[in-house]
Amino acid sequence: MSRPAAKKKIAEVFNCKFLNSDVNVVNCVDGYVNANSLNVKHSPCFKCSIGLKVRMQFAAQ
Is the pTM of this model over 0.85? Predict the structure, then answer.
């Protein structure tokens, strides 16, 4: 009987290199979604590759 693959949990807090501070995952996803849905181009979260990755991992949980 095969075991289902274990999902890797993402850390609750991580260091964001664009904001240069520790960021909560929920705040990262919130900033990323707001910046991209509202087209806020001056936000460091706009089209952030890390934000996209965190959002995808968050959605997979």
Answer: no
